[in-house]
Fold:
Amino acid sequence: MRHLTVVSYNIHRGVGLDRRRDLDRIADVIGELEPDVVGLQEVIREDGVADADQAAYLASRLEMTELVMGETRAHGSGIYGNVVLSRVPVLGSGRCDLSCRMREPRGCLRVDLDVDGTPLHLFNCHFGLGLRERREQLGLLGEFIRASERLAGPRVLLGDFNEWHRGPVTRGLRREFSSPMRRRRTHPAMFPLFALDRIYWDAELEGEQFSVHRSRLARVASDHLPVVARLRLRHRPPRLAPYVTGDALPPAE
Structure:
Protein backbone atom coordinates (compact mmCIF):
# COMPACT_ATOMS: atom_id res chain seq x y z
CA MET A 1 0.00 0.00 0.00
CA ARG A 2 1.63 3.23 -1.17
CA HIS A 3 2.29 6.10 1.24
CA LEU A 4 2.30 9.66 -0.02
CA THR A 5 3.65 12.72 1.81
CA VAL A 6 1.86 15.88 0.68
CA VAL A 7 2.85 19.44 1.66
CA SER A 8 1.13 22.81 1.23
CA TYR A 9 3.27 25.93 1.63
CA ASN A 10 2.67 29.61 0.91
CA ILE A 11 6.25 30.75 0.26
CA HIS A 12 5.45 34.51 0.17
CA ARG A 13 7.51 34.94 -3.02
CA GLY A 14 10.52 33.60 -1.12
CA VAL A 15 10.56 36.55 1.31
CA GLY A 16 10.93 35.67 4.98
CA LEU A 17 9.91 37.48 8.13
CA ASP A 18 13.34 39.13 8.12
CA ARG A 19 12.38 40.66 4.72
CA ARG A 20 15.13 38.73 2.92
CA ARG A 21 14.34 36.83 -0.27
CA ASP A 22 16.07 33.49 0.18
CA LEU A 23 14.91 30.54 -1.94
CA ASP A 24 17.59 28.26 -0.53
CA ARG A 25 15.98 28.71 2.87
CA ILE A 26 12.57 27.82 1.40
CA ALA A 27 14.08 24.74 -0.25
CA ASP A 28 15.67 23.68 3.04
CA VAL A 29 12.32 23.94 4.85
CA ILE A 30 10.61 21.79 2.21
CA GLY A 31 13.53 19.38 2.26
CA GLU A 32 13.03 18.85 5.99
CA LEU A 33 9.64 17.32 5.16
CA GLU A 34 10.82 14.98 2.36
CA PRO A 35 7.56 15.34 0.39
CA ASP A 36 6.40 13.32 -2.59
CA VAL A 37 4.23 16.22 -3.74
CA VAL A 38 4.22 19.88 -2.68
CA GLY A 39 1.69 22.57 -3.52
CA LEU A 40 3.14 26.10 -3.37
CA GLN A 41 1.35 29.43 -3.37
CA GLU A 42 2.71 32.93 -4.17
CA VAL A 43 5.40 31.75 -6.60
CA ILE A 44 7.16 33.92 -9.23
CA ARG A 45 8.50 32.69 -12.57
CA GLU A 46 10.67 35.15 -14.51
CA ASP A 47 13.37 34.50 -17.07
CA GLY A 48 16.72 36.22 -17.38
CA VAL A 49 17.39 36.94 -13.70
CA ALA A 50 19.25 34.65 -11.32
CA ASP A 51 16.84 32.64 -9.13
CA ALA A 52 13.88 34.57 -10.59
CA ASP A 53 12.22 31.39 -11.86
CA GLN A 54 11.41 30.33 -8.33
CA ALA A 55 9.51 27.20 -9.34
CA ALA A 56 12.35 25.83 -11.48
CA TYR A 57 14.94 26.77 -8.87
CA LEU A 58 13.10 24.95 -6.09
CA ALA A 59 12.41 21.94 -8.30
CA SER A 60 16.12 21.69 -9.08
CA ARG A 61 17.22 22.13 -5.47
CA LEU A 62 14.73 19.51 -4.28
CA GLU A 63 15.33 17.15 -7.22
CA MET A 64 11.59 17.05 -7.93
CA THR A 65 11.37 16.30 -11.63
CA GLU A 66 7.72 17.25 -12.26
CA LEU A 67 6.66 20.91 -12.23
CA VAL A 68 3.28 22.43 -13.12
CA MET A 69 2.48 26.16 -12.87
CA GLY A 70 -0.98 27.67 -12.48
CA GLU A 71 -0.67 31.32 -13.48
CA THR A 72 -2.96 33.84 -11.76
CA ARG A 73 -1.45 37.11 -13.04
CA ALA A 74 1.53 38.72 -14.71
CA HIS A 75 4.55 39.66 -12.62
CA GLY A 76 7.14 41.91 -14.25
CA SER A 77 8.44 40.03 -17.26
CA GLY A 78 7.05 36.76 -15.95
CA ILE A 79 4.08 35.23 -14.14
CA TYR A 80 2.86 34.66 -10.59
CA GLY A 81 0.61 31.99 -9.08
CA ASN A 82 0.41 28.45 -7.72
CA VAL A 83 2.84 25.61 -8.40
CA VAL A 84 2.89 21.86 -7.86
CA LEU A 85 6.21 20.01 -7.62
CA SER A 86 6.13 16.22 -7.65
CA ARG A 87 8.33 13.15 -7.49
CA VAL A 88 5.53 11.01 -8.97
CA PRO A 89 4.57 11.21 -12.66
CA VAL A 90 2.11 13.86 -13.87
CA LEU A 91 -0.71 12.66 -16.13
CA GLY A 92 -2.30 16.03 -16.86
CA SER A 93 -3.44 19.32 -15.35
CA GLY A 94 -6.10 22.02 -15.42
CA ARG A 95 -6.61 25.50 -14.05
CA CYS A 96 -9.59 27.41 -12.65
CA ASP A 97 -9.78 31.20 -12.37
CA LEU A 98 -11.08 32.08 -8.89
CA SER A 99 -10.82 35.86 -9.40
CA CYS A 100 -13.76 37.97 -8.20
CA ARG A 101 -14.50 41.41 -9.66
CA MET A 102 -11.74 43.93 -8.84
CA ARG A 103 -10.07 41.83 -6.15
CA GLU A 104 -6.57 40.41 -6.54
CA PRO A 105 -6.53 37.57 -9.11
CA ARG A 106 -6.71 34.12 -7.55
CA GLY A 107 -6.73 30.58 -8.92
CA CYS A 108 -6.81 26.84 -8.40
CA LEU A 109 -4.43 24.43 -10.14
CA ARG A 110 -5.41 20.77 -10.63
CA VAL A 111 -2.61 18.30 -11.26
CA ASP A 112 -3.38 14.65 -12.10
CA LEU A 113 -0.77 12.25 -10.68
CA ASP A 114 0.05 8.60 -11.32
CA VAL A 115 0.63 6.99 -7.92
CA ASP A 116 1.72 3.43 -8.70
CA GLY A 117 -0.99 3.08 -11.33
CA THR A 118 -3.71 4.86 -9.35
CA PRO A 119 -4.74 8.32 -10.58
CA LEU A 120 -4.81 11.00 -7.90
CA HIS A 121 -6.00 14.56 -8.46
CA LEU A 122 -4.39 17.32 -6.44
CA PHE A 123 -6.10 20.74 -6.29
CA ASN A 124 -3.86 23.63 -5.17
CA CYS A 125 -5.85 26.77 -4.22
CA HIS A 126 -5.25 30.30 -3.01
CA PHE A 127 -8.43 32.04 -1.84
CA GLY A 128 -9.01 35.77 -1.29
CA LEU A 129 -9.12 37.95 1.80
CA GLY A 130 -12.80 39.00 1.74
CA LEU A 131 -15.65 36.95 3.21
CA ARG A 132 -17.94 37.49 0.22
CA GLU A 133 -15.02 36.83 -2.12
CA ARG A 134 -14.26 33.47 -0.49
CA ARG A 135 -17.93 32.48 -0.62
CA GLU A 136 -17.96 33.09 -4.40
CA GLN A 137 -14.64 31.29 -4.80
CA LEU A 138 -16.03 28.22 -3.05
CA GLY A 139 -18.77 28.12 -5.69
CA LEU A 140 -16.23 28.51 -8.51
CA LEU A 141 -14.12 25.72 -7.02
CA GLY A 142 -17.20 23.47 -6.87
CA GLU A 143 -17.85 24.09 -10.57
CA PHE A 144 -14.21 23.28 -11.37
CA ILE A 145 -14.43 20.01 -9.45
CA ARG A 146 -17.74 19.18 -11.15
CA ALA A 147 -16.16 19.81 -14.56
CA SER A 148 -13.47 17.28 -13.61
CA GLU A 149 -15.95 14.53 -12.73
CA ARG A 150 -14.88 12.40 -15.70
CA LEU A 151 -11.55 11.83 -13.95
CA ALA A 152 -11.31 8.63 -11.93
CA GLY A 153 -9.38 8.51 -8.67
CA PRO A 154 -9.29 10.22 -5.27
CA ARG A 155 -8.80 13.94 -4.72
CA VAL A 156 -6.55 15.97 -2.43
CA LEU A 157 -7.35 19.65 -1.90
CA LEU A 158 -4.76 21.92 -0.32
CA GLY A 159 -3.75 25.54 -0.18
CA ASP A 160 -4.05 28.88 1.56
CA PHE A 161 -7.79 29.43 2.14
CA ASN A 162 -7.41 32.73 4.04
CA GLU A 163 -10.19 31.73 6.43
CA TRP A 164 -9.27 31.59 10.11
CA HIS A 165 -12.76 30.83 11.49
CA ARG A 166 -15.56 28.35 10.71
CA GLY A 167 -16.88 30.32 7.76
CA PRO A 168 -18.37 29.27 4.41
CA VAL A 169 -15.17 27.66 3.13
CA THR A 170 -14.71 25.54 6.24
CA ARG A 171 -18.36 24.45 6.29
CA GLY A 172 -18.50 23.71 2.57
CA LEU A 173 -15.31 21.70 2.45
CA ARG A 174 -16.24 19.76 5.56
CA ARG A 175 -19.27 18.44 3.69
CA GLU A 176 -17.34 17.78 0.50
CA PHE A 177 -14.37 15.84 1.92
CA SER A 178 -14.47 12.89 4.29
CA SER A 179 -11.13 13.66 5.92
CA PRO A 180 -11.27 14.96 9.49
CA MET A 181 -11.29 18.75 9.87
CA ARG A 182 -7.72 19.90 9.35
CA ARG A 183 -7.35 23.27 11.03
CA ARG A 184 -4.00 24.16 12.57
CA ARG A 185 -2.57 27.63 13.11
CA THR A 186 -0.04 28.55 10.41
CA HIS A 187 0.12 32.37 10.20
CA PRO A 188 2.09 34.43 11.07
CA ALA A 189 4.92 31.91 11.09
CA MET A 190 6.83 33.14 14.14
CA PHE A 191 3.77 33.08 16.42
CA PRO A 192 0.87 31.52 14.47
CA LEU A 193 -2.63 32.73 15.34
CA PHE A 194 -4.65 31.88 12.22
CA ALA A 195 -5.45 28.51 10.60
CA LEU A 196 -5.17 29.57 6.95
CA ASP A 197 -3.40 26.59 5.33
CA ARG A 198 -5.11 23.20 5.09
CA ILE A 199 -5.18 19.80 3.41
CA TYR A 200 -8.35 17.77 2.68
CA TRP A 201 -8.65 14.31 1.12
CA ASP A 202 -11.17 11.72 -0.05
CA ALA A 203 -12.23 8.46 1.59
CA GLU A 204 -10.05 6.45 -0.81
CA LEU A 205 -7.10 7.88 1.12
CA GLU A 206 -6.29 7.17 4.74
CA GLY A 207 -4.69 9.99 6.69
CA GLU A 208 -1.92 8.67 8.92
CA GLN A 209 -0.55 12.03 10.01
CA PHE A 210 -1.34 15.73 9.69
CA SER A 211 0.77 18.48 11.22
CA VAL A 212 2.17 21.98 10.94
CA HIS A 213 5.93 22.09 10.41
CA ARG A 214 7.33 24.39 13.10
CA SER A 215 11.09 24.05 12.68
CA ARG A 216 13.31 26.98 13.58
CA LEU A 217 13.99 27.65 9.91
CA ALA A 218 10.30 27.44 8.94
CA ARG A 219 9.46 30.15 11.47
CA VAL A 220 11.45 32.75 9.52
CA ALA A 221 11.61 31.52 5.88
CA SER A 222 8.06 32.71 4.99
CA ASP A 223 5.13 34.39 6.72
CA HIS A 224 3.28 31.03 6.63
CA LEU A 225 4.23 27.68 8.13
CA PRO A 226 3.90 24.63 5.84
CA VAL A 227 1.37 21.89 6.57
CA VAL A 228 2.07 18.25 5.82
CA ALA A 229 -0.13 15.15 5.51
CA ARG A 230 1.04 11.57 5.25
CA LEU A 231 -1.58 9.66 3.27
CA ARG A 232 -2.00 6.01 2.41
CA LEU A 233 -3.77 4.69 -0.66
CA ARG A 234 -6.41 2.14 0.30
CA HIS A 235 -6.92 -0.99 -1.79
CA ARG A 236 -9.95 0.35 -3.62
CA PRO A 237 -10.71 0.78 -7.32
CA PRO A 238 -10.45 4.33 -8.70
CA ARG A 239 -13.43 6.61 -8.14
CA LEU A 240 -15.85 6.16 -11.03
CA ALA A 241 -18.93 8.00 -9.75
CA PRO A 242 -19.17 11.76 -10.35
CA TYR A 243 -17.85 14.02 -7.64
CA VAL A 244 -20.60 15.29 -5.36
CA THR A 245 -20.76 19.09 -5.26
CA GLY A 246 -23.15 21.98 -4.91
CA ASP A 247 -26.84 21.13 -4.41
CA ALA A 248 -26.07 17.40 -4.37
CA LEU A 249 -24.12 17.71 -1.12
CA PRO A 250 -25.76 16.23 1.99
CA PRO A 251 -26.92 18.65 4.69
CA ALA A 252 -24.39 19.76 7.28
CA GLU A 253 -24.24 17.64 10.42
Remarks:
- The two ends are 32 Å apart (CA to CA).
- The longest strand covers residues 66-75.
- The helical segments are 23-33, 54-62, 131-147, 168-176, 218-221.
